[in-house]
Amino acid sequence: MENRDGANDICLHAQNIDKLYPGTKALDQVSFDVHTGKVNVLIGENGAGKSTLMKIIAGIEQPTAGELFLDGRQVSFRSTVEARRYGIGIIHQELSLFPNLNVYQNIFMANEKTKNGCFLDNKKHYALAHEVLERLEYPIKPDTLVGNLRVGQQQMIEIARNLIQEGLKILIMDEPTSSLSEMEVEVLFKIMRELTAAGISIVYISHRLEEIMRIGDYITILRDGKLVAKASVCGIDLPWIVRQMTGEGKSYPKKDHSVDWAGQETVLEVKDLTLPKSGGGYLLDHVSFDLKKGEILGIYGLLGAGRTEIFECIMGLRPEHTGTIVMNGQEIPVKSLSEQIGRGFAWVPEDRQREGLVQTLSIGKNISLSSLKQYVRGIFLNERMEGKSIDQMIREIHIKVADKSLPILSLSGGNQQKVVIAKGILTSPKILLLDEPSRGIDIGAKTEVFDIINQYAAQGLPLIVISSELNEIIAIADRIVVLSNGIKTAEFTGDEITEDNLVLASYKGHHGHNSKEKEFSGHEIQ
User: Fold this and answer.
1) What is the DSSP track for 397-410?
2) pTM of structure
3) Residue 367: which H helix or E strand, with range?
4) Which of 229, 257, 270, 333 could form a disulfide with 221 if both were Cys (CB 3.0 to 4.6 A apart)?
Protein backbone atom coordinates (compact mmCIF):
# COMPACT_ATOMS: atom_id res chain seq x y z
CA MET A 1 0.00 0.00 0.00
CA GLU A 2 1.21 3.54 -0.79
CA ASN A 3 0.64 6.22 1.82
CA ARG A 4 0.38 9.98 1.40
CA ASP A 5 4.14 10.42 1.76
CA GLY A 6 4.72 8.11 -1.18
CA ALA A 7 6.16 5.22 0.83
CA ASN A 8 5.42 1.80 -0.65
CA ASP A 9 6.63 -0.34 2.25
CA ILE A 10 3.51 0.01 4.41
CA CYS A 11 2.09 -3.38 5.39
CA LEU A 12 -0.59 -2.03 7.71
CA HIS A 13 -2.34 1.33 7.69
CA ALA A 14 -4.78 2.50 10.38
CA GLN A 15 -6.82 5.38 9.05
CA ASN A 16 -8.67 8.01 11.13
CA ILE A 17 -9.30 5.69 14.10
CA ASP A 18 -11.71 6.88 16.80
CA LYS A 19 -12.39 5.05 20.06
CA LEU A 20 -15.01 6.25 22.52
CA TYR A 21 -15.44 5.00 26.09
CA PRO A 22 -18.00 6.32 28.59
CA GLY A 23 -16.75 9.74 29.63
CA THR A 24 -13.64 9.79 27.46
CA LYS A 25 -12.38 9.75 23.87
CA ALA A 26 -9.34 7.47 23.89
CA LEU A 27 -8.48 7.92 20.18
CA ASP A 28 -9.35 10.92 18.02
CA GLN A 29 -8.83 10.54 14.24
CA VAL A 30 -5.51 8.70 14.65
CA SER A 31 -3.72 7.38 11.56
CA PHE A 32 -0.78 5.01 11.94
CA ASP A 33 1.54 3.22 9.50
CA VAL A 34 3.47 -0.02 10.04
CA HIS A 35 6.53 -0.29 7.78
CA THR A 36 7.42 -3.77 6.52
CA GLY A 37 10.45 -5.37 8.17
CA LYS A 38 11.05 -2.39 10.46
CA VAL A 39 10.73 -1.54 14.14
CA ASN A 40 7.83 0.91 14.27
CA VAL A 41 7.92 2.76 17.59
CA LEU A 42 4.69 4.08 19.10
CA ILE A 43 5.08 6.33 22.13
CA GLY A 44 3.23 8.87 24.22
CA GLU A 45 2.48 9.60 27.85
CA ASN A 46 0.18 7.31 29.81
CA GLY A 47 -3.36 7.80 28.57
CA ALA A 48 -2.21 8.92 25.12
CA GLY A 49 -4.04 6.00 23.47
CA LYS A 50 -1.13 3.72 22.51
CA SER A 51 -2.42 0.49 24.04
CA THR A 52 -5.96 1.21 22.84
CA LEU A 53 -4.76 1.55 19.25
CA MET A 54 -2.78 -1.68 19.53
CA LYS A 55 -5.78 -3.52 20.99
CA ILE A 56 -7.79 -2.47 17.94
CA ILE A 57 -5.09 -3.71 15.55
CA ALA A 58 -4.82 -7.00 17.50
CA GLY A 59 -8.59 -7.60 17.53
CA ILE A 60 -9.07 -7.11 21.28
CA GLU A 61 -11.14 -3.94 20.78
CA GLN A 62 -13.15 -2.62 17.84
CA PRO A 63 -12.86 1.02 16.72
CA THR A 64 -15.80 3.41 17.08
CA ALA A 65 -14.86 4.77 13.65
CA GLY A 66 -12.02 4.41 11.15
CA GLU A 67 -10.56 1.69 8.96
CA LEU A 68 -7.67 -0.81 8.93
CA PHE A 69 -5.83 -1.82 5.75
CA LEU A 70 -3.53 -4.86 5.67
CA ASP A 71 -1.38 -5.23 2.55
CA GLY A 72 -3.69 -2.74 0.83
CA ARG A 73 -6.93 -4.58 1.66
CA GLN A 74 -9.48 -3.33 4.18
CA VAL A 75 -9.80 -5.65 7.19
CA SER A 76 -11.50 -5.76 10.59
CA PHE A 77 -10.75 -8.14 13.43
CA ARG A 78 -13.43 -9.29 15.87
CA SER A 79 -11.01 -11.23 18.08
CA THR A 80 -7.33 -11.94 18.67
CA VAL A 81 -7.82 -15.37 17.09
CA GLU A 82 -8.97 -13.68 13.90
CA ALA A 83 -6.05 -11.21 13.97
CA ARG A 84 -3.64 -14.11 14.46
CA ARG A 85 -4.99 -15.76 11.30
CA TYR A 86 -3.83 -12.65 9.46
CA GLY A 87 -0.38 -12.90 11.09
CA ILE A 88 -0.77 -10.30 13.87
CA GLY A 89 0.53 -11.14 17.36
CA ILE A 90 0.69 -9.04 20.51
CA ILE A 91 2.84 -9.10 23.64
CA HIS A 92 0.79 -7.33 26.30
CA GLN A 93 2.14 -4.78 28.77
CA GLU A 94 0.13 -6.46 31.51
CA LEU A 95 0.90 -10.18 31.58
CA SER A 96 -1.85 -12.46 30.28
CA LEU A 97 -0.46 -15.80 31.44
CA PHE A 98 -2.14 -18.59 33.40
CA PRO A 99 -0.22 -19.01 36.70
CA ASN A 100 -1.75 -22.46 37.37
CA LEU A 101 -0.35 -23.87 34.10
CA ASN A 102 3.24 -24.68 33.21
CA VAL A 103 5.49 -22.86 30.76
CA TYR A 104 4.83 -24.93 27.64
CA GLN A 105 1.08 -24.96 28.28
CA ASN A 106 1.12 -21.15 28.38
CA ILE A 107 3.31 -20.87 25.28
CA PHE A 108 0.93 -23.01 23.23
CA MET A 109 -2.34 -21.76 24.71
CA ALA A 110 -4.87 -21.38 21.84
CA ASN A 111 -2.18 -22.68 19.48
CA GLU A 112 -2.01 -26.32 20.56
CA LYS A 113 -0.39 -29.10 18.55
CA THR A 114 -2.21 -32.43 18.28
CA LYS A 115 -1.38 -35.99 17.32
CA ASN A 116 -3.81 -38.30 15.56
CA GLY A 117 -6.04 -35.29 15.10
CA CYS A 118 -7.45 -35.21 18.62
CA PHE A 119 -4.84 -35.67 21.38
CA LEU A 120 -2.59 -32.88 22.67
CA ASP A 121 1.01 -33.52 21.65
CA ASN A 122 2.68 -32.45 24.88
CA LYS A 123 5.97 -34.06 23.87
CA LYS A 124 6.07 -31.74 20.87
CA HIS A 125 4.96 -28.81 23.03
CA TYR A 126 7.85 -29.46 25.41
CA ALA A 127 10.43 -29.77 22.62
CA LEU A 128 9.29 -26.64 20.76
CA ALA A 129 9.07 -24.64 24.00
CA HIS A 130 12.60 -25.74 24.90
CA GLU A 131 13.74 -24.64 21.43
CA VAL A 132 12.22 -21.16 21.62
CA LEU A 133 13.52 -20.63 25.18
CA GLU A 134 17.02 -21.58 24.00
CA ARG A 135 16.63 -19.03 21.22
CA LEU A 136 15.84 -16.47 23.90
CA GLU A 137 18.87 -17.73 25.87
CA TYR A 138 16.54 -18.38 28.81
CA PRO A 139 17.20 -21.55 30.85
CA ILE A 140 13.71 -22.27 32.18
CA LYS A 141 12.40 -25.84 32.10
CA PRO A 142 9.23 -25.98 29.95
CA ASP A 143 7.32 -27.90 32.63
CA THR A 144 7.93 -25.22 35.31
CA LEU A 145 4.74 -23.79 36.84
CA VAL A 146 4.36 -20.18 35.62
CA GLY A 147 2.98 -19.05 38.99
CA ASN A 148 6.39 -19.82 40.54
CA LEU A 149 8.22 -17.48 38.15
CA ARG A 150 9.18 -13.87 38.78
CA VAL A 151 7.63 -11.06 36.73
CA GLY A 152 10.71 -10.75 34.49
CA GLN A 153 10.70 -14.49 33.81
CA GLN A 154 6.98 -14.41 33.01
CA GLN A 155 7.62 -11.58 30.56
CA MET A 156 10.04 -13.81 28.66
CA ILE A 157 7.36 -16.53 28.49
CA GLU A 158 4.94 -13.94 27.07
CA ILE A 159 7.53 -13.14 24.38
CA ALA A 160 8.18 -16.84 23.67
CA ARG A 161 4.49 -17.62 23.05
CA ASN A 162 4.47 -15.08 20.21
CA LEU A 163 7.69 -16.28 18.61
CA ILE A 164 6.17 -19.72 17.95
CA GLN A 165 3.24 -18.21 16.01
CA GLU A 166 3.17 -19.54 12.44
CA GLY A 167 2.72 -17.03 9.61
CA LEU A 168 3.67 -14.08 11.83
CA LYS A 169 3.69 -10.79 9.87
CA ILE A 170 3.31 -8.10 12.52
CA LEU A 171 4.36 -8.42 16.18
CA ILE A 172 3.12 -5.80 18.62
CA MET A 173 5.33 -5.40 21.70
CA ASP A 174 3.73 -3.32 24.47
CA GLU A 175 6.43 -2.49 27.05
CA PRO A 176 8.23 -5.84 26.59
CA THR A 177 11.37 -4.81 28.53
CA SER A 178 9.70 -3.26 31.59
CA SER A 179 10.57 -6.28 33.77
CA LEU A 180 13.72 -7.52 32.01
CA SER A 181 17.35 -7.28 33.07
CA GLU A 182 19.90 -5.57 30.82
CA MET A 183 21.17 -8.93 29.58
CA GLU A 184 17.63 -10.09 28.75
CA VAL A 185 16.99 -6.82 26.90
CA GLU A 186 20.06 -7.39 24.75
CA VAL A 187 18.84 -10.88 23.80
CA LEU A 188 15.40 -9.49 22.95
CA PHE A 189 16.91 -6.81 20.72
CA LYS A 190 18.92 -9.45 18.88
CA ILE A 191 15.73 -11.47 18.29
CA MET A 192 13.93 -8.33 17.07
CA ARG A 193 16.63 -7.69 14.48
CA GLU A 194 16.42 -11.32 13.34
CA LEU A 195 12.65 -10.94 12.93
CA THR A 196 12.86 -7.69 10.96
CA ALA A 197 15.62 -9.16 8.76
CA ALA A 198 13.15 -11.95 7.92
CA GLY A 199 10.58 -9.34 6.84
CA ILE A 200 8.46 -9.36 10.02
CA SER A 201 7.25 -5.93 11.13
CA ILE A 202 7.41 -4.92 14.79
CA VAL A 203 5.32 -2.31 16.57
CA TYR A 204 7.25 -1.35 19.68
CA ILE A 205 5.84 0.58 22.65
CA SER A 206 8.28 1.64 25.37
CA HIS A 207 8.75 4.43 27.90
CA ARG A 208 12.50 3.87 27.88
CA LEU A 209 13.50 6.55 25.42
CA GLU A 210 17.12 5.41 25.11
CA GLU A 211 15.86 1.99 23.93
CA ILE A 212 13.77 3.65 21.25
CA MET A 213 16.80 5.44 19.81
CA ARG A 214 18.73 2.15 19.73
CA ILE A 215 16.19 -0.22 18.28
CA GLY A 216 13.64 1.93 16.43
CA ASP A 217 13.40 2.70 12.70
CA TYR A 218 10.25 4.84 12.58
CA ILE A 219 8.48 6.68 15.38
CA THR A 220 4.88 7.80 15.86
CA ILE A 221 3.88 9.95 18.85
CA LEU A 222 0.42 10.26 20.38
CA ARG A 223 -0.75 12.82 22.91
CA ASP A 224 -4.19 12.90 24.53
CA GLY A 225 -5.55 10.43 21.98
CA LYS A 226 -4.31 12.35 18.94
CA LEU A 227 -1.44 11.92 16.48
CA VAL A 228 1.07 14.73 17.10
CA ALA A 229 4.21 13.65 15.23
CA LYS A 230 5.89 10.94 13.18
CA ALA A 231 9.45 10.69 11.91
CA SER A 232 12.38 8.45 11.02
CA VAL A 233 14.36 7.72 14.19
CA CYS A 234 17.67 8.55 12.50
CA GLY A 235 16.50 12.17 12.08
CA ILE A 236 15.50 12.97 15.70
CA ASP A 237 16.91 13.13 19.25
CA LEU A 238 15.64 12.58 22.80
CA PRO A 239 14.76 16.25 23.56
CA TRP A 240 12.58 16.30 20.42
CA ILE A 241 10.75 13.16 21.57
CA VAL A 242 10.09 14.57 25.06
CA ARG A 243 8.80 17.87 23.61
CA GLN A 244 6.40 16.05 21.30
CA MET A 245 5.17 13.71 24.05
CA THR A 246 4.58 16.28 26.75
CA GLY A 247 4.39 19.60 24.95
CA GLU A 248 7.24 20.70 27.20
CA GLY A 249 10.55 19.47 28.58
CA LYS A 250 10.21 17.26 31.68
CA SER A 251 12.92 15.78 33.82
CA TYR A 252 13.29 13.87 37.04
CA PRO A 253 13.32 15.92 40.26
CA LYS A 254 16.73 16.94 41.56
CA LYS A 255 17.77 15.14 44.75
CA ASP A 256 19.91 16.88 47.35
CA HIS A 257 22.36 14.17 48.42
CA SER A 258 24.19 16.47 50.86
CA VAL A 259 21.77 15.81 53.76
CA ASP A 260 23.39 13.88 56.62
CA TRP A 261 20.94 11.19 57.72
CA ALA A 262 23.23 9.59 60.33
CA GLY A 263 21.85 11.65 63.21
CA GLN A 264 18.18 11.34 62.27
CA GLU A 265 15.63 9.26 64.17
CA THR A 266 15.74 5.57 63.21
CA VAL A 267 12.28 4.08 62.58
CA LEU A 268 13.24 0.67 61.16
CA GLU A 269 16.22 -1.67 61.59
CA VAL A 270 16.64 -4.85 59.58
CA LYS A 271 19.37 -7.09 60.99
CA ASP A 272 20.88 -10.20 59.38
CA LEU A 273 17.84 -10.86 57.21
CA THR A 274 18.37 -14.32 55.73
CA LEU A 275 16.10 -16.21 53.33
CA PRO A 276 17.05 -19.77 52.33
CA LYS A 277 16.73 -20.88 48.73
CA SER A 278 15.00 -24.11 47.78
CA GLY A 279 17.74 -26.64 46.95
CA GLY A 280 20.43 -24.84 48.94
CA GLY A 281 21.99 -21.41 49.16
CA TYR A 282 20.30 -18.12 50.00
CA LEU A 283 17.97 -15.64 48.31
CA LEU A 284 19.04 -13.19 51.03
CA ASP A 285 22.25 -13.69 52.99
CA HIS A 286 22.51 -11.73 56.28
CA VAL A 287 21.29 -8.42 54.88
CA SER A 288 21.21 -5.46 57.30
CA PHE A 289 20.15 -1.81 56.91
CA ASP A 290 18.16 0.89 58.71
CA LEU A 291 15.63 3.57 57.74
CA LYS A 292 15.35 7.11 59.12
CA LYS A 293 12.29 9.29 59.62
CA GLY A 294 11.43 11.20 56.42
CA GLU A 295 14.15 9.37 54.48
CA ILE A 296 13.79 7.80 51.03
CA LEU A 297 16.00 4.71 51.16
CA GLY A 298 16.75 3.20 47.76
CA ILE A 299 17.42 -0.48 47.12
CA TYR A 300 19.19 -1.21 43.84
CA GLY A 301 20.31 -4.44 42.19
CA LEU A 302 20.00 -6.57 39.10
CA LEU A 303 17.16 -9.02 38.49
CA GLY A 304 17.43 -11.83 41.04
CA ALA A 305 19.49 -9.77 43.49
CA GLY A 306 16.92 -10.25 46.26
CA ARG A 307 15.28 -6.82 46.21
CA THR A 308 11.63 -7.91 46.21
CA GLU A 309 12.37 -10.70 48.70
CA ILE A 310 13.31 -8.06 51.28
CA PHE A 311 9.83 -6.54 51.05
CA GLU A 312 8.21 -9.98 51.13
CA CYS A 313 10.07 -10.79 54.37
CA ILE A 314 9.17 -7.45 55.97
CA MET A 315 5.50 -7.87 55.00
CA GLY A 316 5.22 -11.40 56.42
CA LEU A 317 5.00 -13.26 53.12
CA ARG A 318 8.21 -15.25 53.73
CA PRO A 319 7.76 -16.97 57.13
CA GLU A 320 10.86 -19.10 56.50
CA HIS A 321 13.17 -16.07 56.84
CA THR A 322 15.42 -15.46 59.84
CA GLY A 323 16.82 -12.23 61.22
CA THR A 324 15.54 -9.35 63.32
CA ILE A 325 13.19 -6.50 62.40
CA VAL A 326 13.03 -3.58 64.82
CA MET A 327 10.38 -0.85 64.50
CA ASN A 328 10.76 2.33 66.57
CA GLY A 329 13.22 0.59 68.87
CA GLN A 330 11.08 -2.48 69.51
CA GLU A 331 11.66 -5.90 67.94
CA ILE A 332 8.52 -7.12 66.15
CA PRO A 333 7.53 -10.69 65.31
CA VAL A 334 6.70 -10.88 61.60
CA LYS A 335 3.95 -13.46 61.12
CA SER A 336 1.44 -12.26 58.53
CA LEU A 337 0.62 -9.57 55.98
CA SER A 338 -2.46 -8.39 57.90
CA GLU A 339 -0.43 -7.95 61.11
CA GLN A 340 2.20 -5.89 59.28
CA ILE A 341 -0.45 -3.67 57.68
CA GLY A 342 -1.92 -3.23 61.19
CA ARG A 343 1.50 -2.11 62.46
CA GLY A 344 1.64 0.61 59.82
CA PHE A 345 3.44 -0.96 56.87
CA ALA A 346 2.06 -0.26 53.39
CA TRP A 347 3.39 -2.00 50.28
CA VAL A 348 3.12 -1.00 46.61
CA PRO A 349 4.04 -4.25 44.78
CA GLU A 350 5.97 -4.53 41.51
CA ASP A 351 3.16 -6.30 39.65
CA ARG A 352 0.28 -3.86 40.04
CA GLN A 353 -2.17 -5.94 38.01
CA ARG A 354 -1.73 -9.19 39.89
CA GLU A 355 -0.89 -7.95 43.38
CA GLY A 356 -1.91 -4.28 43.59
CA LEU A 357 -5.35 -4.07 41.96
CA VAL A 358 -8.62 -5.98 41.86
CA GLN A 359 -9.56 -5.72 38.20
CA THR A 360 -13.26 -6.41 38.77
CA LEU A 361 -13.64 -3.43 41.13
CA SER A 362 -14.06 0.25 40.36
CA ILE A 363 -11.35 2.90 40.69
CA GLY A 364 -12.80 4.11 43.99
CA LYS A 365 -13.17 0.66 45.53
CA ASN A 366 -9.54 -0.16 44.63
CA ILE A 367 -8.40 2.98 46.47
CA SER A 368 -10.34 2.20 49.65
CA LEU A 369 -9.82 -1.58 49.62
CA SER A 370 -7.08 -1.73 52.28
CA SER A 371 -8.74 0.76 54.65
CA LEU A 372 -12.39 -0.37 54.66
CA LYS A 373 -12.31 -0.95 58.44
CA GLN A 374 -12.12 2.83 58.91
CA TYR A 375 -15.58 3.25 57.38
CA VAL A 376 -17.46 0.43 59.11
CA ARG A 377 -20.01 1.53 61.68
CA GLY A 378 -21.51 -1.49 63.40
CA ILE A 379 -22.35 -3.85 60.56
CA PHE A 380 -22.74 -1.07 57.97
CA LEU A 381 -20.25 0.60 55.62
CA ASN A 382 -20.39 4.40 55.78
CA GLU A 383 -20.20 4.98 52.03
CA ARG A 384 -20.36 8.77 52.40
CA MET A 385 -17.24 8.81 54.58
CA GLU A 386 -15.53 6.31 52.26
CA GLY A 387 -16.38 8.45 49.21
CA LYS A 388 -14.94 11.60 50.83
CA SER A 389 -11.66 9.80 51.56
CA ILE A 390 -11.48 8.45 48.00
CA ASP A 391 -12.10 11.94 46.56
CA GLN A 392 -9.38 13.36 48.80
CA MET A 393 -6.84 10.77 47.59
CA ILE A 394 -7.78 11.39 43.94
CA ARG A 395 -7.02 15.10 44.48
CA GLU A 396 -3.91 14.51 46.60
CA ILE A 397 -2.30 11.93 44.29
CA HIS A 398 -3.52 13.75 41.12
CA ILE A 399 -5.29 10.73 39.62
CA LYS A 400 -6.76 11.67 36.25
CA VAL A 401 -10.23 10.15 36.36
CA ALA A 402 -13.61 11.23 34.98
CA ASP A 403 -15.63 9.11 37.42
CA LYS A 404 -14.38 7.06 40.38
CA SER A 405 -17.09 4.46 39.72
CA LEU A 406 -15.54 3.53 36.35
CA PRO A 407 -13.65 0.19 36.07
CA ILE A 408 -10.02 0.32 37.20
CA LEU A 409 -8.90 -0.93 33.76
CA SER A 410 -10.35 2.21 32.14
CA LEU A 411 -7.33 4.09 33.53
CA SER A 412 -3.92 4.40 31.90
CA GLY A 413 -0.99 2.50 33.41
CA GLY A 414 0.33 5.62 35.15
CA ASN A 415 -3.01 6.39 36.78
CA GLN A 416 -3.46 2.75 37.80
CA GLN A 417 -0.10 3.01 39.57
CA LYS A 418 -1.28 6.16 41.36
CA VAL A 419 -4.35 4.23 42.53
CA VAL A 420 -2.11 1.54 44.08
CA ILE A 421 -0.07 4.25 45.82
CA ALA A 422 -3.27 5.99 46.98
CA LYS A 423 -4.55 2.69 48.41
CA GLY A 424 -1.39 2.42 50.53
CA ILE A 425 -1.42 6.08 51.62
CA LEU A 426 -5.08 5.86 52.69
CA THR A 427 -4.12 3.33 55.40
CA SER A 428 -2.10 6.16 57.08
CA PRO A 429 1.14 4.14 56.99
CA LYS A 430 4.11 4.62 59.28
CA ILE A 431 6.45 3.10 56.64
CA LEU A 432 5.78 2.90 52.88
CA LEU A 433 7.48 0.26 50.70
CA LEU A 434 7.46 0.82 46.93
CA ASP A 435 8.67 -1.89 44.53
CA GLU A 436 9.44 -0.48 41.06
CA PRO A 437 6.89 2.36 41.42
CA SER A 438 7.66 3.72 37.94
CA ARG A 439 7.50 0.40 36.08
CA GLY A 440 5.65 0.68 32.75
CA ILE A 441 4.76 4.38 33.03
CA ASP A 442 5.94 7.32 30.94
CA ILE A 443 8.36 10.10 31.85
CA GLY A 444 5.57 12.53 32.73
CA ALA A 445 3.83 10.05 35.05
CA LYS A 446 7.20 9.05 36.56
CA THR A 447 7.89 12.67 37.46
CA GLU A 448 4.45 12.90 39.10
CA VAL A 449 5.05 9.69 41.07
CA PHE A 450 8.44 10.99 42.23
CA ASP A 451 6.80 14.27 43.29
CA ILE A 452 4.28 12.26 45.36
CA ILE A 453 7.10 10.27 47.00
CA ASN A 454 9.02 13.45 47.85
CA GLN A 455 5.84 15.11 49.12
CA TYR A 456 5.17 12.41 51.71
CA ALA A 457 8.84 12.12 52.70
CA ALA A 458 8.84 15.88 53.39
CA GLN A 459 5.90 15.26 55.76
CA GLY A 460 8.09 12.81 57.72
CA LEU A 461 6.96 9.52 56.19
CA PRO A 462 9.90 7.09 55.80
CA LEU A 463 9.94 5.24 52.47
CA ILE A 464 11.93 2.41 50.90
CA VAL A 465 12.01 2.42 47.10
CA ILE A 466 13.19 -0.46 44.91
CA SER A 467 14.21 0.44 41.36
CA SER A 468 16.25 -1.24 38.64
CA GLU A 469 16.61 2.10 36.79
CA LEU A 470 19.90 3.80 37.66
CA ASN A 471 18.87 7.36 36.82
CA GLU A 472 15.62 6.96 38.75
CA ILE A 473 17.10 5.54 41.96
CA ILE A 474 19.77 8.27 41.93
CA ALA A 475 17.10 10.93 41.40
CA ILE A 476 14.76 9.76 44.16
CA ALA A 477 16.83 8.17 46.95
CA ASP A 478 18.59 9.89 49.85
CA ARG A 479 20.69 6.80 50.55
CA ILE A 480 21.10 3.63 48.47
CA VAL A 481 21.65 0.01 49.51
CA VAL A 482 22.95 -2.26 46.73
CA LEU A 483 22.23 -5.99 46.55
CA SER A 484 23.90 -8.60 44.39
CA ASN A 485 23.03 -12.30 44.46
CA GLY A 486 21.25 -11.89 47.79
CA ILE A 487 24.20 -10.10 49.39
CA LYS A 488 24.37 -6.48 50.50
CA THR A 489 27.49 -5.32 48.67
CA ALA A 490 27.36 -1.57 49.30
CA GLU A 491 25.63 1.38 50.90
CA PHE A 492 26.09 4.82 49.35
CA THR A 493 25.39 8.36 50.54
CA GLY A 494 26.19 11.87 49.31
CA ASP A 495 28.78 12.13 46.56
CA GLU A 496 29.25 8.34 46.60
CA ILE A 497 25.90 7.99 44.79
CA THR A 498 27.06 7.63 41.18
CA GLU A 499 26.13 5.36 38.30
CA ASP A 500 29.62 3.81 38.24
CA ASN A 501 29.53 2.92 41.94
CA LEU A 502 26.04 1.42 41.72
CA VAL A 503 26.88 -0.68 38.66
CA LEU A 504 30.11 -2.03 40.13
CA ALA A 505 28.42 -2.88 43.41
CA SER A 506 25.50 -4.59 41.67
CA TYR A 507 27.89 -7.00 39.91
CA LYS A 508 30.16 -7.65 42.90
CA GLY A 509 28.14 -10.60 44.26
CA HIS A 510 28.33 -12.32 40.87
CA HIS A 511 32.11 -12.61 40.96
CA GLY A 512 32.82 -15.10 43.71
CA HIS A 513 32.05 -12.84 46.65
CA ASN A 514 30.24 -14.15 49.69
CA SER A 515 28.50 -12.69 52.70
CA LYS A 516 31.67 -12.76 54.83
CA GLU A 517 33.42 -10.27 52.59
CA LYS A 518 33.56 -6.65 53.62
CA GLU A 519 30.88 -4.36 52.21
CA PHE A 520 32.21 -1.34 50.42
CA SER A 521 31.15 2.20 49.63
CA GLY A 522 32.39 5.12 47.61
CA HIS A 523 35.93 4.83 46.40
CA GLU A 524 36.64 1.61 48.32
CA ILE A 525 35.27 -0.49 45.45
CA GLN A 526 37.71 -3.22 44.51
Assistant:
1) HT---S-TTSBGGG
2) 0.59
3) helix 363-368
4) 229
